Amino acid sequence: MMHTFPQNFLWGGAMAANQVEGAWREGGKGLSTSDLQPHGIFGERVARQPGDFNIKDIAIDFYHRYPEDIRLFAEMGFTVLRISIAWTRIFPQGDEEQPCEAGLAFYDRLFDEMAKYNIAPMVTLSHYEMPYGLVSNYGGWGNRQTIVFFERYARTVFERYRHKVKYWLTFNEINMSLHAPFTGVGLPENSSRQAIYQAIHHQLVASARAVKACHQIVSEGKIGNMLLGGLLYPLTCRPEDMLEALQKNREWLFFGDVQARGAYPPYMARFFKQQGIEIAISEQDNIDLREPVDFISFSYYMSGCATADKTAALARGNVLDMVPNPHLPASEWGWQIDPQGLRLLLNMLADRYQKPLFIVENGLGARDKAEADGAINDDYRIAYLNDHLVQVREAIKDGVEVWGYTSWGPIDLVSASKAEFSKRYGFIYVDRDDQGNGTLARRPKKSFWWYREVIKTQGASLSQR
Questions:
Q1: pLDDT under 50 in the chain at which residues?
Q2: What is the pLDDT of residue 318?
Q3: 153 closest CA partner among 56, 20, 37, 30
Q4: What pLDDT does residue 49 have?
Q5: SS (H, E, C) 321-372
Q6: pLDDT at 47
Q7: Sign of the CA dihedral with 202 first, then 205, 211, and 217 last
Q8: DSSP letter assigned to residue 174
Q9: Catalytic status, residue 361
Q10: Which segments of 87-213 are extended strands (E)?
Q11: Nearest to residue 295, comparing CAs of 347, 231, 361, 349?
Q12: What pLDDT score does 141 carry?
């Protein structure tokens, strides 16, 4: 029986520029959509005023403190770190002809620091943010011109970092645009489904163009998509619930189908007709889309249920609304905990796409409390991650090709949904609270040493609970 992961398995963590970097106006950085969301994805969008407060303006100050953080990641044994590039550090307004050298130089320094410890970067091109200039001046992804601006940005960073970055992702959790359109595609929250799907189409074309550019420019590059893994079970074995689960899962798998197979799946024709949606798709769009990704990456935090019963109560988790599963426990934030769902999802995606898979987000948000001696005994996080990694190992034994695992938030950061510090994910504690108080000092939690042992033993130290 195999107790360890493959020798070339990539171990690490994942985070986003707008949740860790801070330095929101340093180095020529422009205003991003995230800068206008001081209370997170589901908070009110506000105009920035001089002197106002946004906890993400400093976040954990990774922009200035990254050498210390990279050293701590190396101490855990990371072989990969997923980060995102802040698009507005490279093109502050989004439509400039020439990039901002200060922004490019920052990521050069970051990648060089990672190289000292043999930590491979995995870089997301757009993670829950875009230049606000493209929203205010062009209408965000609702405007076809944004495809051109994104391709220019992608080609710029591919050229600059082609010898430093091998692994790339296009858009973070691309399917979440259906649920948070301002964050995903720069459209108003009350936009019609017609407008949202047209913007999504432009984003899918841009993603495919970025894949092609990566293949042209980065000689050993591998580029993937990134899905919010919203696995749904039928609430009952009634055929109506089975069919509802099929259709609800297709809502998010549609994005993977286009990005992995190079064309719109046939089932979307019926969906668009029933919804009265007509997408403007050019012949060139269809050609562009025929550039499939090299691998499928996804986040997985929880599963949920689907039912044809319209009176069933919903619970919000991550970005999606799901019917709670009566057989599962939940976290403090109501996110249901389903380790076996990860094995199911890995097998489902492997069967569907026959491509390598990469788990790029998985973690537990919790309120960590320090003991009298300063120790943070986050056994609940260890249990969550242990049980999920055991299921990853089971999926690999099932025959699924999994390239790696990057836990979400290897260091405490500002949460995306509500811009909180109290919802902590990290192996490393950061001294800052929801009001922005604290020294920003770092210190390892109990899970830090646990994860280090997991990586050191290639998973042999995991507990089969």
A1: 1
A2: 56
A3: 30
A4: 79
A5: EEECCCCCCECCCCCECCHHHHHHHHHHHHHHHCCCEEEEECCCCECCCCCC
A6: 84
A7: negative
A8: G
A9: yes
A10: 120-126, 167-171
A11: 349
A12: 98
Distance CA 230, CA 68 (A): 34
Residue with tokens 């620091």: 113
- Predicted local distance difference test score (pLDDT) of residue 186: 97
Q: Which residues contact 259 (CB under 8 A, 6 or more apart)?
A: 170, 174, 204, 207, 208, 211, 225, 292, 293
Measured CA to CA, the distance from residue 341 to residue 224 in angstroms comes to 22
**Distances, alpha carbon 45 to alpha carbons 49, 132, 247, in Å:** 13, 12, 31
- The 10 Å Cβ neighbour count of residue 387 is 18
The amino acid sitting at 286 is: N
pLDDT attached to residue 51: 77
> At which residue do the structure tokens 């099929």 appear?
246
392-432 tens-digit pLDDT: 999 999 999 999 999 999 999 999 988 999 999 999 999 99
State the catalytic residue, choosing from 21, 129, 151, 361. Answer: 361
Neighbours of 289 (CB within 10 A): 22
Task: State the DSSP string of 227-266.
Answer: EE---EEESSS-HHHHHHHHHHHHHHHHHHHHHHHSS--T
Taking Cα atoms as reference points, which of 44, 40, 32 lies closest to residue 86?
Answer: 32
Q: Which fold has domain 10-456?
A: TIM Barrel (3.20.20)
For position 292, what pLDDT does the model report? 98
Q: What is the pLDDT of residue 1?
A: 45
